[in-house]
Description:
By secondary structure, the chain is mainly alpha-helical. It has ten helices and six strands; from the N terminus they run αααββββββααααααα. It is 50% helix and 6% strand. The chain is elongated. The chain binds zinc ion (ZN).
Amino acid sequence: MSQPCGTTLTSTNKWLNIFQYCRFLRILGHVMVLLVLALVGFIYTAVVPLTFGPRLISKNIFVILASVIVIIVFSVVTAMCVWSYLATVMLDPGRVPPDWHPFPDEQHARAELERLSYTTYYYDRRDPRRPRFCKRCQVWKPERAHHCSVTGRCVLKMDHWCIWVVNCVGLLNYKAFLLFIFYAMLGCALALLLLLESMIDFFNNKLKGPSAPLIFVVSIFSFAFTLSLAGFLAMHLQLLAANCTTIEMYEKDRLHPWPYNKGFRRNFEEVFGRNKLRWLLPLYTEVEKRQLLESCLGKVPQATGQWGPTALPMLSHPATPFLSTVV
Length: 327
Ligand SMILES: [Zn+2]
Protein backbone atom coordinates (compact mmCIF):
# COMPACT_ATOMS: atom_id res chain seq x y z
CA MET A 1 0.00 0.00 0.00
CA SER A 2 1.14 3.48 -0.69
CA GLN A 3 2.13 5.86 2.05
CA PRO A 4 0.57 9.22 1.35
CA CYS A 5 2.44 12.42 1.92
CA GLY A 6 5.59 10.65 2.99
CA THR A 7 4.34 10.43 6.57
CA THR A 8 3.01 7.36 8.32
CA LEU A 9 0.98 6.69 11.39
CA THR A 10 1.69 3.61 13.40
CA SER A 11 -0.54 1.92 15.88
CA THR A 12 0.02 2.86 19.47
CA ASN A 13 -2.00 -0.10 20.67
CA LYS A 14 0.13 -2.87 22.06
CA TRP A 15 -2.66 -5.32 22.67
CA LEU A 16 -2.86 -8.47 20.66
CA ASN A 17 -4.81 -8.06 17.46
CA ILE A 18 -6.92 -11.21 17.38
CA PHE A 19 -8.32 -10.31 13.99
CA GLN A 20 -5.05 -11.21 12.26
CA TYR A 21 -5.99 -14.83 12.91
CA CYS A 22 -9.27 -14.37 11.07
CA ARG A 23 -7.48 -14.84 7.77
CA PHE A 24 -7.88 -18.59 8.09
CA LEU A 25 -11.58 -17.87 7.47
CA ARG A 26 -10.70 -17.28 3.84
CA ILE A 27 -9.54 -20.89 3.56
CA LEU A 28 -12.67 -22.13 5.30
CA GLY A 29 -14.69 -19.87 3.03
CA HIS A 30 -13.65 -21.76 -0.10
CA VAL A 31 -15.22 -24.87 1.41
CA MET A 32 -18.35 -22.81 2.04
CA VAL A 33 -18.58 -21.91 -1.67
CA LEU A 34 -18.62 -25.61 -2.54
CA LEU A 35 -21.17 -26.21 0.23
CA VAL A 36 -23.50 -23.49 -1.04
CA LEU A 37 -23.30 -24.74 -4.63
CA ALA A 38 -23.87 -28.32 -3.43
CA LEU A 39 -26.95 -27.22 -1.47
CA VAL A 40 -28.35 -25.46 -4.53
CA GLY A 41 -27.63 -28.60 -6.58
CA PHE A 42 -29.37 -30.88 -4.07
CA ILE A 43 -32.48 -28.68 -3.88
CA TYR A 44 -32.67 -28.41 -7.68
CA THR A 45 -32.23 -32.18 -8.07
CA ALA A 46 -35.01 -32.91 -5.59
CA VAL A 47 -37.46 -30.55 -7.31
CA VAL A 48 -36.70 -30.98 -11.03
CA PRO A 49 -35.11 -34.35 -11.93
CA LEU A 50 -36.71 -36.32 -9.04
CA THR A 51 -40.16 -34.75 -8.69
CA PHE A 52 -41.35 -32.78 -11.74
CA GLY A 53 -39.09 -34.23 -14.45
CA PRO A 54 -40.76 -37.68 -14.36
CA ARG A 55 -44.19 -36.03 -14.75
CA LEU A 56 -43.24 -34.87 -18.25
CA ILE A 57 -43.99 -38.37 -19.53
CA SER A 58 -47.49 -38.31 -18.02
CA LYS A 59 -50.46 -39.01 -20.29
CA ASN A 60 -52.31 -36.03 -18.84
CA ILE A 61 -51.54 -32.91 -20.88
CA PHE A 62 -52.36 -30.60 -17.95
CA VAL A 63 -49.85 -32.39 -15.74
CA ILE A 64 -47.22 -32.01 -18.48
CA LEU A 65 -47.99 -28.29 -18.95
CA ALA A 66 -47.94 -27.60 -15.22
CA SER A 67 -44.64 -29.48 -14.87
CA VAL A 68 -43.07 -27.53 -17.74
CA ILE A 69 -44.08 -24.21 -16.13
CA VAL A 70 -42.77 -25.33 -12.73
CA ILE A 71 -39.46 -26.51 -14.21
CA ILE A 72 -38.96 -23.26 -16.16
CA VAL A 73 -39.81 -20.99 -13.20
CA PHE A 74 -37.70 -22.98 -10.74
CA SER A 75 -34.77 -23.16 -13.16
CA VAL A 76 -34.84 -19.39 -13.71
CA VAL A 77 -34.92 -18.70 -9.95
CA THR A 78 -32.06 -21.17 -9.39
CA ALA A 79 -30.00 -19.66 -12.21
CA MET A 80 -30.52 -16.12 -10.83
CA CYS A 81 -29.57 -17.34 -7.36
CA VAL A 82 -26.33 -18.89 -8.64
CA TRP A 83 -25.54 -15.83 -10.77
CA SER A 84 -26.07 -13.45 -7.81
CA TYR A 85 -24.02 -15.71 -5.56
CA LEU A 86 -21.07 -15.93 -7.94
CA ALA A 87 -21.25 -12.17 -8.54
CA THR A 88 -21.05 -11.55 -4.78
CA VAL A 89 -18.13 -13.96 -4.48
CA MET A 90 -16.15 -12.61 -7.43
CA LEU A 91 -16.93 -8.87 -7.53
CA ASP A 92 -14.48 -6.54 -5.83
CA PRO A 93 -16.47 -4.81 -3.06
CA GLY A 94 -14.58 -1.56 -3.69
CA ARG A 95 -11.04 -0.61 -2.79
CA VAL A 96 -9.44 2.70 -1.91
CA PRO A 97 -7.43 4.02 -4.88
CA PRO A 98 -3.69 4.51 -4.29
CA ASP A 99 -2.81 7.93 -2.88
CA TRP A 100 -6.47 8.88 -2.37
CA HIS A 101 -7.17 11.47 0.28
CA PRO A 102 -10.14 13.72 1.11
CA PHE A 103 -8.22 17.00 0.98
CA PRO A 104 -7.93 19.56 -1.83
CA ASP A 105 -4.24 18.85 -2.44
CA GLU A 106 -1.23 16.93 -1.21
CA GLN A 107 -0.08 19.82 0.94
CA HIS A 108 -3.31 19.80 2.96
CA ALA A 109 -3.19 16.03 3.23
CA ARG A 110 0.40 16.15 4.50
CA ALA A 111 -0.40 18.88 7.02
CA GLU A 112 -3.44 16.97 8.28
CA LEU A 113 -1.43 13.80 8.70
CA GLU A 114 1.27 15.69 10.60
CA ARG A 115 -1.37 17.10 12.91
CA LEU A 116 -2.82 13.68 13.48
CA SER A 117 0.67 12.44 14.30
CA TYR A 118 1.84 15.09 16.72
CA THR A 119 -1.09 17.01 18.12
CA THR A 120 -4.08 16.17 20.22
CA TYR A 121 -7.20 17.42 18.60
CA TYR A 122 -10.42 15.65 18.16
CA TYR A 123 -13.18 15.16 15.71
CA ASP A 124 -16.68 14.24 16.62
CA ARG A 125 -16.38 10.45 16.51
CA ARG A 126 -20.09 10.07 15.90
CA ASP A 127 -19.69 11.72 12.51
CA PRO A 128 -18.80 9.15 9.83
CA ARG A 129 -17.77 11.97 7.48
CA ARG A 130 -14.70 12.91 9.51
CA PRO A 131 -11.26 12.24 7.97
CA ARG A 132 -9.90 8.88 9.07
CA PHE A 133 -6.56 7.28 8.44
CA CYS A 134 -6.01 3.52 8.35
CA LYS A 135 -2.86 2.68 10.26
CA ARG A 136 -2.71 -0.82 8.84
CA CYS A 137 -3.01 0.09 5.15
CA GLN A 138 -1.37 3.51 5.66
CA VAL A 139 -4.06 5.19 3.54
CA TRP A 140 -6.76 7.73 4.18
CA LYS A 141 -10.15 6.10 4.49
CA PRO A 142 -13.08 7.53 2.51
CA GLU A 143 -16.41 8.04 4.23
CA ARG A 144 -18.01 4.76 5.31
CA ALA A 145 -14.89 2.74 4.43
CA HIS A 146 -13.63 0.27 6.99
CA HIS A 147 -10.60 -1.94 7.32
CA CYS A 148 -11.44 -5.60 6.73
CA SER A 149 -9.25 -7.75 8.96
CA VAL A 150 -9.88 -10.87 6.90
CA THR A 151 -8.94 -9.48 3.49
CA GLY A 152 -6.38 -7.14 5.06
CA ARG A 153 -7.44 -3.97 3.28
CA CYS A 154 -9.86 -1.08 3.48
CA VAL A 155 -13.22 -1.65 1.77
CA LEU A 156 -15.54 1.08 0.50
CA LYS A 157 -18.90 1.26 2.29
CA MET A 158 -18.05 -2.00 4.01
CA ASP A 159 -21.04 -3.93 5.28
CA HIS A 160 -19.44 -7.08 6.68
CA TRP A 161 -17.18 -9.96 5.77
CA CYS A 162 -19.32 -12.95 4.86
CA ILE A 163 -18.06 -16.50 5.20
CA TRP A 164 -20.81 -17.78 2.89
CA VAL A 165 -19.47 -15.73 -0.02
CA VAL A 166 -15.76 -15.73 1.04
CA ASN A 167 -15.71 -12.02 0.36
CA CYS A 168 -16.21 -8.71 1.97
CA VAL A 169 -19.63 -7.23 1.20
CA GLY A 170 -19.25 -3.59 0.31
CA LEU A 171 -20.12 -0.81 -2.09
CA LEU A 172 -19.91 -2.72 -5.38
CA ASN A 173 -21.29 -6.14 -4.44
CA TYR A 174 -23.99 -5.25 -1.89
CA LYS A 175 -26.66 -5.32 -4.60
CA ALA A 176 -25.55 -8.81 -5.72
CA PHE A 177 -25.51 -9.93 -2.07
CA LEU A 178 -29.07 -8.72 -1.44
CA LEU A 179 -30.26 -10.36 -4.66
CA PHE A 180 -28.55 -13.60 -3.65
CA ILE A 181 -30.43 -13.60 -0.33
CA PHE A 182 -33.66 -12.75 -2.15
CA TYR A 183 -33.35 -15.48 -4.82
CA ALA A 184 -32.12 -18.05 -2.29
CA MET A 185 -35.12 -17.36 -0.05
CA LEU A 186 -37.48 -17.46 -3.04
CA GLY A 187 -35.94 -20.72 -4.29
CA CYS A 188 -36.17 -22.38 -0.85
CA ALA A 189 -39.78 -21.24 -0.37
CA LEU A 190 -40.70 -22.54 -3.84
CA ALA A 191 -38.95 -25.85 -3.18
CA LEU A 192 -40.82 -26.20 0.10
CA LEU A 193 -44.12 -25.57 -1.66
CA LEU A 194 -43.37 -27.83 -4.62
CA LEU A 195 -42.19 -30.72 -2.43
CA LEU A 196 -45.14 -30.48 -0.04
CA GLU A 197 -47.10 -33.22 -1.79
CA SER A 198 -44.05 -35.51 -1.79
CA MET A 199 -43.52 -34.82 1.92
CA ILE A 200 -47.11 -35.79 2.70
CA ASP A 201 -46.59 -39.00 0.68
CA PHE A 202 -43.34 -39.59 2.58
CA PHE A 203 -45.08 -39.47 5.96
CA ASN A 204 -47.87 -41.71 4.64
CA ASN A 205 -45.28 -44.22 3.40
CA LYS A 206 -46.39 -43.67 -0.17
CA LEU A 207 -43.10 -42.15 -1.34
CA LYS A 208 -40.78 -45.04 -2.04
CA GLY A 209 -37.44 -45.50 -3.73
CA PRO A 210 -33.93 -44.10 -3.24
CA SER A 211 -35.07 -40.51 -3.88
CA ALA A 212 -37.38 -40.41 -0.84
CA PRO A 213 -34.68 -39.62 1.78
CA LEU A 214 -33.22 -36.85 -0.40
CA ILE A 215 -36.62 -35.22 -0.89
CA PHE A 216 -37.24 -35.43 2.87
CA VAL A 217 -33.87 -33.86 3.77
CA VAL A 218 -34.22 -31.15 1.10
CA SER A 219 -37.67 -30.24 2.43
CA ILE A 220 -36.33 -29.84 5.97
CA PHE A 221 -33.41 -27.71 4.72
CA SER A 222 -35.72 -25.61 2.56
CA PHE A 223 -37.95 -24.91 5.55
CA ALA A 224 -35.03 -23.88 7.75
CA PHE A 225 -33.39 -21.73 5.06
CA THR A 226 -36.64 -20.02 4.09
CA LEU A 227 -37.17 -18.83 7.65
CA SER A 228 -33.57 -17.80 8.32
CA LEU A 229 -33.13 -16.07 4.95
CA ALA A 230 -36.44 -14.23 5.34
CA GLY A 231 -35.25 -12.85 8.69
CA PHE A 232 -31.87 -11.91 7.26
CA LEU A 233 -33.48 -10.25 4.24
CA ALA A 234 -35.86 -8.31 6.47
CA MET A 235 -32.91 -7.02 8.50
CA HIS A 236 -31.05 -5.88 5.39
CA LEU A 237 -34.16 -4.25 3.94
CA GLN A 238 -34.39 -2.23 7.14
CA LEU A 239 -30.75 -1.21 6.75
CA LEU A 240 -31.31 -0.41 3.07
CA ALA A 241 -34.32 1.74 3.93
CA ALA A 242 -32.18 3.76 6.36
CA ASN A 243 -29.04 3.77 4.13
CA CYS A 244 -27.05 2.16 6.91
CA THR A 245 -24.52 -0.68 6.79
CA THR A 246 -24.31 -3.58 9.24
CA ILE A 247 -21.13 -2.09 10.74
CA GLU A 248 -22.76 1.30 11.14
CA MET A 249 -25.78 -0.33 12.76
CA TYR A 250 -23.55 -1.71 15.51
CA GLU A 251 -21.62 1.51 16.10
CA LYS A 252 -22.40 2.70 19.58
CA ASP A 253 -22.34 6.38 18.85
CA ARG A 254 -23.96 7.63 15.70
CA LEU A 255 -25.15 10.95 14.44
CA HIS A 256 -28.87 11.53 14.66
CA PRO A 257 -30.37 12.11 12.18
CA TRP A 258 -28.23 9.77 10.09
CA PRO A 259 -26.57 11.96 7.42
CA TYR A 260 -26.85 9.36 4.62
CA ASN A 261 -30.57 8.73 4.96
CA LYS A 262 -32.15 10.37 1.90
CA GLY A 263 -35.54 8.68 2.07
CA PHE A 264 -36.46 5.13 1.05
CA ARG A 265 -36.70 5.70 -2.70
CA ARG A 266 -33.29 7.37 -3.03
CA ASN A 267 -31.66 4.97 -0.59
CA PHE A 268 -33.01 2.04 -2.61
CA GLU A 269 -31.86 3.55 -5.92
CA GLU A 270 -28.42 4.20 -4.48
CA VAL A 271 -27.94 0.43 -4.23
CA PHE A 272 -30.16 -0.92 -7.02
CA GLY A 273 -29.82 1.89 -9.56
CA ARG A 274 -32.56 3.93 -11.20
CA ASN A 275 -33.27 1.58 -14.11
CA LYS A 276 -36.11 -0.73 -12.99
CA LEU A 277 -35.19 -3.27 -15.68
CA ARG A 278 -31.89 -3.95 -13.93
CA TRP A 279 -33.17 -4.06 -10.36
CA LEU A 280 -33.29 -7.85 -10.43
CA LEU A 281 -29.90 -8.29 -12.12
CA PRO A 282 -26.72 -8.52 -10.00
CA LEU A 283 -24.71 -6.07 -12.08
CA TYR A 284 -24.00 -2.38 -12.55
CA THR A 285 -23.41 -0.49 -15.77
CA GLU A 286 -20.12 1.40 -16.00
CA VAL A 287 -22.03 4.66 -15.42
CA GLU A 288 -23.72 3.31 -12.28
CA LYS A 289 -20.41 1.97 -11.02
CA ARG A 290 -18.70 5.32 -11.55
CA GLN A 291 -21.54 7.14 -9.76
CA LEU A 292 -21.23 4.78 -6.81
CA LEU A 293 -17.48 5.30 -6.59
CA GLU A 294 -17.91 9.07 -6.85
CA SER A 295 -20.43 8.99 -4.02
CA CYS A 296 -17.69 7.57 -1.79
CA LEU A 297 -14.55 9.12 -3.21
CA GLY A 298 -15.53 12.34 -4.92
CA LYS A 299 -17.17 14.31 -2.14
CA VAL A 300 -16.13 17.69 -0.83
CA PRO A 301 -19.09 18.00 1.49
CA GLN A 302 -18.23 20.78 3.87
CA ALA A 303 -19.32 24.38 3.46
CA THR A 304 -15.74 25.59 3.36
CA GLY A 305 -15.06 23.37 0.39
CA GLN A 306 -12.45 21.28 2.15
CA TRP A 307 -11.92 19.05 5.10
CA GLY A 308 -10.32 20.68 8.08
CA PRO A 309 -10.78 21.40 11.75
CA THR A 310 -12.85 24.52 11.10
CA ALA A 311 -15.20 22.64 8.82
CA LEU A 312 -15.53 19.51 10.90
CA PRO A 313 -17.56 18.85 14.02
CA MET A 314 -15.00 19.26 16.79
CA LEU A 315 -15.57 18.19 20.33
CA SER A 316 -15.46 20.92 22.95
CA HIS A 317 -14.29 18.49 25.58
CA PRO A 318 -11.52 15.90 25.64
CA ALA A 319 -12.69 12.56 24.38
CA THR A 320 -11.20 9.38 23.04
CA PRO A 321 -8.07 10.42 21.15
CA PHE A 322 -8.59 10.21 17.41
CA LEU A 323 -5.27 8.47 16.87
CA SER A 324 -5.95 5.59 19.19
CA THR A 325 -9.28 4.74 17.64
CA VAL A 326 -8.88 5.65 14.01
CA VAL A 327 -8.43 2.17 12.53
ZN1 LIG B 1 -7.07 -0.49 5.97
